[in-house]
């Protein structure tokens, strides 16, 4: 049997850990550090987050890890031909290494196919053939009994495609460099793959759709984006005979329940039979029936839904059964349910407006989306990255300098003219409006509702009441300016104090 040198053993094990960890948790950066040891280069951020400076997937650490992995896989392949095959635990780790290497070898094509799916089939066929051929070659040195307990190539290929879809939906769409935004990305990944990717790959991949997901958080904070990221990242089997994924492509169906009357909600969701109600002139197939098994139905504003429909949704969430309106035949829902609300469901239950049993069916997988105010309280400077991203979206296809100039204009308006403690009650949706308004009118004024939500710092009230010592007043003022300026140096300039004095006043314990 081939023997592993100590450094090869370390590399194999640390690469396996890296492959299976949640890429959006800070532990992922630790895992990269463990692989590279002294060769690891310091990172600006301690988690995977899209920044204005471009793609983090091209980071030097990833490039270095991929080179190490590609070198090791070929070395072990050759060595096994001469010294005999790896066995047991080491054979499994070698399979993880093969999976990792082939993922990165084909990721660019998978990504291109996701972005431009129209020409998808031919590319997928080509990648699949190369992938299978390469995997068969690299696993050939293993003994038959080892190979037979590994996943099939088509299952792994389906998992890799799913990982790429999930990564894209989270990394490219859920922006924010604050800790709450990082936690949100990690929670969305976990909702798709659970906390244990190995177990997911072994046995959960076909069952996660049976668990409904509840997304909560304030209006405009990104609940629908989260629902889309989850809904579009479900497992989709690969058919090796047809050399294509099973079922039709995109299958994310969103329904805003508060915008429809109860009868319409039922007819849209469950479908109806001709004559089931006035106006039902023909049979209608509902969205639960149309949605393919790898898709998701998104029930937005579930907190607003009529009690009569709550009972029927409970049946779907519990046993996956439903019937078309006007029909007694029972049908089975095959896909995933994702629901969202900005209401406080606990309060709704206390008031008797939301069924407890439905809540308990939905709450086992809950993703809580933080408000923009929470993100900025954690990291005031994070607003700059969000503004740059939103400007990029508004001015897409423009010259980078054009976008940079507008981002600066918006940033100047926010720091110069908006109250520093402004809470952004409309969340990221409001920040988008701010970007557009500055683009069109060179100004943004929050609505009265928003302005009223600005929290006045309590130290100002204390100062007005004459309850602060001169020291306390200066400390509080220094903290305020420091928060606005985002650093000791610029705060010191505004305050006319030296940097060290500002720092000691900001850090003082009163
Ligand atoms: N993390 C984020 N990164 C980038 N854009 C975001 C993020 N969160 C929200 N947005 C943008 O903010 C807007 C509002 O988001 P979304 O519709 O998902 O919010 P919501 O919570 O579902 O709101 P509502 O409760 O009113 O339906 C969208 O244009 C969305 O693209």
From TrEMBL:
Residue stretches making up the Sigma-54 factor interaction domain: 174-440
Keyword set includes ATP-binding: yes
Keywords for the protein's UniProt record, in alphabetical order: ATP-binding, Nucleotide-binding
Organismal lineage: Bacteria, Pseudomonadati, Planctomycetota, Planctomycetia, Pirellulales
One of the GO biological process terms: regulation of DNA-templated transcription
Protein's name in the database: Transcriptional regulatory protein ZraR
Superkingdom: Bacteria
Entry's Gene Ontology molecular function annotations: ATP binding
SMART domains referenced in this protein's UniProt entry, alphabetically: AAA
Naturally occurring in which organism (per UniProt): Botrimarina colliarenosi
